[in-house]
Amino acid sequence: MSPLTRRELLKAGAASAGAVAMPAVAQVANSATTPNAPRPPVMQTVSLEVNGRNVEREVDTRTTLLDLLREHLQLTGTKKGCDHGQCGACTTIVDGRRINSCLSLAVMHEGARVTTIEGLGTPGDLHPMQAAFVKHDGYQCGYCTPGQICSAVAVLDEIRDGIPSHVTADLRGKPALDASEIRERMSGNLCRCGAYANILDAIEDVAGVRKGATA
Amino acid sequence: MKAFAYTRAETPAAAAAAAAREPGTKFIAGGTNLLDLMKLEIETPAQLVDVNGLKLDTIEATDAGGLRIGALVRNTDLAADRRVRKDWPLLSRALLAGASGQLRNRATTAGNLLQRTRCPYFYDTDQACNKRLPGSGCGAIDGYSRQLAVIGHSPSCIATHPSDMAVAMRALDAVIETVKPDGSERRIALDDFYLAPGNTPQRETVLEPGELITAVVLPPPVGGRQVYRKVRDRASYAFALVSVAAIVQRDGSGSVTVGGVAHKPWRKAEADAELPRGAKAVAARLFEGAAPTEDNRFKLALAERTIAAALAEAQEAAS
């Protein structure tokens, strides 16, 4: 028997789950009353727009948006770091807002518009934020980078939209577009290589506020 | 994660009824805390009722001059609301002191109130925890308790409530509105919402099975100088060791509510009455009967100093 790849194994699992698809709610509920009884997976269809493309998939209801992107749509740019909303590596932009895609179920995003790192730019046509991360060396290992970039793009929109932050001095005014605001707003994206200084340079560059910047 | 059935509710009453029909149902809105707990199998609902379509996502002025905040208003939108920033700035400040931008974009008003403790013994399923597994004991009391409660707790549980928003809501005398499975509605003062742990720390609020929060109502603006001061292990994106919501009026009266010290935002009328006499007097009355562990005794000194700092900031802003 030829060894299965991890992805083939996942597909096989999903297929066998599909064979017992759609159990009645009561069936799942009954299994809950006997704590250790196995519960059959529940399959559900979700359709949404990802990077401008309409997609529809039947997924186990437990599938997170992150796993839908990575395992079902093969958009592996979005990374699974902690899978608990602590690191920000899975940050994507959903309906114009950045979120942790690991803490959201795929089925909760029926009709949503999702932008991942693949949708921001391509190797031949980089988004300005992607280009700035390259230019300023805003990474070392690169694992957190897609999340950092998606977050950074949304951060600049949030500041332009006047959404305040913890460090905004005057709640009645517009937040400043400066290093202090950017640092606070990027606190949900960890970089264990510690490329923070260069990440900040890259974001300031795109924002047009980088001190001593040369074109 | 355990398998679950997933449905979307059309109306608040239908959501409550659906939850009451199936044992082991949970409502899901932002999901930022619930999904985390489901991955760890601390929560194992058989059914999720998605309430995101219930149109409870608006902030409206009340006839009394206050605000009715829909249960589904995202933390980002509540903090950024012009009316909140102008007349209830304490609430904006508390929200912005919590979580990360990504989480605030998803987290809802009701979900924030209902988030579970971040006690490490609640999260570690290999440890004793009366809240997670009633009767199993409390690993925290003689364990690593630096972040945990110093007052209001019991021999069964020393967990704290982690919300910043709830601290401001308590200071602003917010009232929670709910709908029950039979369609009836009720109003619960935030101060009456959280249950003391006692012998049943698994019961955290007065909500009945299936009862759904529909809104949180703020009374008319109280004015004064409003300061939210949070002390934590990192400059951003960390839960409070201690937080203080202070409201100080021109005549020196006001209120002090403290977060990170108990199972709920900690405020006492007798302590508020001490405000003209300063932070030491307020803290002494607020923490009368406190029983810290060796690990978290520092919180009593920290709380007093944080109250002093918050009051100084409020007075500075007033001058």
What does this structure look like?
The complex is a heterodimer of chains A (215) and B (319). Chain A is built from 8 helices and 5 strands. Chain A is globular and about 60 Å long. Chain A is 37% helix and 13% strand. Residues 6-24 of chain A have low confidence and may be disordered. With 319 residues, chain B is α+β, with helices and mostly antiparallel strands. In chain B, 30% of the residues lie in helices and 18% in strands. The longest helix of chain B is centred in the C-terminal third of the chain and has 21 residues, at 298-318. The radius of gyration of chain B is 19 Å and the shape is globular. The mean pLDDT of chain B is 97. The chains are: A alpha+beta (215), B alpha+beta (319). Chains A and B meet through helix 2, strand 4, helix 6 and helix 7 of A and strand 1, helix 2, strand 3, helix 3 and helix 5 of B.
Low-confidence regions of chain B = none
Order of helical and strand elements of chain A: HHEEHEEEHHHHH
Q: Whole-number radius of gyration of chain B?
A: 19 Å
* Helix vs. strand class of chain A: alpha+beta
- Give the biggest sheet of chain A: 5 strands, mixed
Q: Write the element-wise H/E pattern of chain B from the N-terminal end onward.
A: EHEHEEEHHHHHHHEEHEEEEHHH
Work out the strand percent of chain A. Answer: 5-15%
Low-confidence stretches of chain A: 6-24
End-to-end Cα distance of chain A: 58 Å
Helix content of chain A: 25-40%
Oligomeric grouping of the chains: heterodimer
Query: What's the count of strands of chain B?
Result: 11
Show the largest interface: A-B, 50 and 44 residues
- CA(first)-CA(last) distance of chain B: 55 Å
- Percent in strands of chain B: 15-25%
Helix content of chain B: 25-40%
Neighbour order of strands in the largest sheet of chain A: 2-1-5-3-4
Average predicted confidence as pLDDT of chain A: 88
- The count of strands of chain A amounts to 5
Q: Give the C-alpha Rg of chain A.
A: 20 Å
* Spatial ordering of strands, largest sheet of chain B: 4-5-8-6-7
